[in-house]
């Protein structure tokens, strides 16, 4: 089971590397989101490769790909579809919108009006779309990658907490290293920046990997460690609203996916620690006093991980899982 997940991951990594230099850690996080049935919010400055990465991932897994360029005039019906009258058949027909896809890139999602942002909510949370009282299921896998620019506020509509909570993770690509940027620059001069990514796995293989991930096990001590982290976010003096049960489930599912990617059929504490920040920080509401102390959600979560919660031993986690 774990070897199957690893094989799928390896194929995708190799193929995506044709178009993307570096960013393996970010790609692994996207695969965590994909394999665990979640969705990912990429927040970073323009020009670091967010769109290319999403398109390359979609191409490598042979999924139907749709890009939504979010603007203030984008309406919900433009996203989910609408019912129209067909004069030839004298009947009403539903015409699917671009959200009926398998991998959806919602580019600059915070430029869409709240009504349009909300149109994504049901699809992301339930894997279906309801229009005119009729619910229509979405094909699996269904994976949304949304991007937003953190440095611009003019003409944007910040995502509300309910919408943020639908994203499994909020991550940033960051700038490439010196050597990675040198390679990117040379590839662009050689015309290699537009490398074609081919399908190396099928959507059915992705769905099978998603099923395998759900069978990855938690030892009782590791499960308690996860529960304790979430509970402490609700008790920390600097945190006004802690992680909800949905956030707990999200961190557990993400840890299972990362364990599978790393070739294990059990979760270890390192999996939880590595994913705690991208999965939990956007779910925390801080006390206003933290602004004065210049402490962000990352800092407070690090305090919980490093100083408050005792870490179980990895050997015990492996042994108890068997």
TrEMBL record:
<dbReference type="InterPro" id="IPR011703">
    <property type="entry name" value="ATPase_AAA-3"/>
</dbReference>
<dbReference type="Pfam" id="PF07726">
    <property type="entry name" value="AAA_3"/>
</dbReference>
<dbReference type="Pfam" id="PF17863">
    <property type="entry name" value="AAA_lid_2"/>
</dbReference>
<protein>
    <submittedName>
        <fullName>MoxR family ATPase</fullName>
    </submittedName>
</protein>
<dbReference type="InterPro" id="IPR003593">
    <property type="entry name" value="AAA+_ATPase"/>
</dbReference>
<dbReference type="InterPro" id="IPR041628">
    <property type="entry name" value="ChlI/MoxR_AAA_lid"/>
</dbReference>
<feature type="domain" description="AAA+ ATPase">
    <location>
        <begin position="36"/>
        <end position="177"/>
    </location>
</feature>
<dbReference type="InterPro" id="IPR027417">
    <property type="entry name" value="P-loop_NTPase"/>
</dbReference>
<dbReference type="InterPro" id="IPR050764">
    <property type="entry name" value="CbbQ/NirQ/NorQ/GpvN"/>
</dbReference>
